[in-house]
Amino acid sequence: MAALAATGRAVGAVLAVPLGPWVEFRRKRPVMVGMDLVRFAALTSVPAAYALGGLGFTQLLLVSVVCAAAGIAFNAAGGAYLKTLLPPQDLLTANGRFEATTWSATMLGPPLGGAAVGWLGPVVTVTADAVSYLLSALGIRAIGGQEPRPERAREPRLRAGELFEGWRHILTRPALRPLFFNAIVVNGLIMASEPLLAVLLLGDLGFTPWQYGLVFAAPCAGGLVGARLARPLVTRFGQHRVMLTSGTLRACWPIGLVFVQPGVPGIVLVIGVQLGLVTCCGVFNPVLATYRLEHTASDRVARTLTAWSVSSSAAIAALTAGWGLLAAATGIRTAIALAGTVLLVTPLLLPRRAPVPPAEPSGTAVQGDPGRV
């Protein structure tokens, strides 16, 4: 299971590298529909192979890789498409709603998925998951309006330098560079701690599966609250101050997991820590997403978001593997403590001063793009 999760994420991220420029110079809505259909086809192959008696680990690995790469391309196209759909003043509201939806799915998905597996079996549940991508494709296809054609859409050849344009843009922008490194380190360490925490809670401390589900599902309500608070907080205190404060606070919570104990006190502690972490993430994430769009030219959004997602996926895979080895050598609590300690330092990577509000960064214009900032 660990190999399946890590390899799918890592290889999918590598395969997604050329998808950034490919997405950039195409209409985004058809790309999003196409990526949903790719994931639908990949997941549908699992119950089909099972019915024919040919399902094996290799196929599951390929499905994981395809879904990971398609997910990165979908998110890159979605971010770019959002910027063309909405005026600048509405981006934070939209990103806050996306964030609230994400935490709703995180809160409800695992319990409902576990119940579906128990009642209907894994094959039916995977089939339902596949159908969800088909419904998503139909929903996106139903969006009205005319999407402008990117200027380079007719050029068939992809220049090699365009593969790395997203990273070049991030690393040469003082407004984005510190947030990029902060995000990949924080996300990587949080995700790297999750398998260790599962072993600690379910194994060493004897949590039951429902208790384990509770301590991670209940705090997701904080994500909803944080996402709803993001815009009012920015309106009152300013974008930079909110991003700096929430980004700093989210790094302070995970160290508390070192002190978890069996029974009710342990449940209360984990819920409290996770609630604080998730609430801060609920505020930080939509503000960061909006800030990133504001500081990226419309003709570079897809490549920038792809580079960001690829780097994040690679960091999560590497840190998860590394922290697993660290836990094997030093113990689970020690590894969790080290992750929490490193997280306490990550606020130093946040920008200390608010950058000058950007005009549309220089770059090749996109015809008909209303989303100038």
From TrEMBL:
Pfam family membership, one: MFS_1
Transmembrane segments: 60-82, 119-144, 179-203, 209-230, 266-293, 305-326
Claim: Transmembrane is one of the keywords in the record: yes
Primary localization: membrane
InterPro entries (UniProt xref): MFS, MFS_trans_sf
Subcellular location: Cell membrane
Keywords annotated in UniProt: Cell membrane, Membrane, Transmembrane, Transmembrane helix
PANTHER family reported for this sequence: INTEGRAL MEMBRANE EFFLUX PROTEIN-RELATED, MAJOR FACILITATOR SUPERFAMILY ASSOCIATED DOMAIN-CONTAINING PROTEIN
Protein's name according to its UniProt entry: MFS transporter
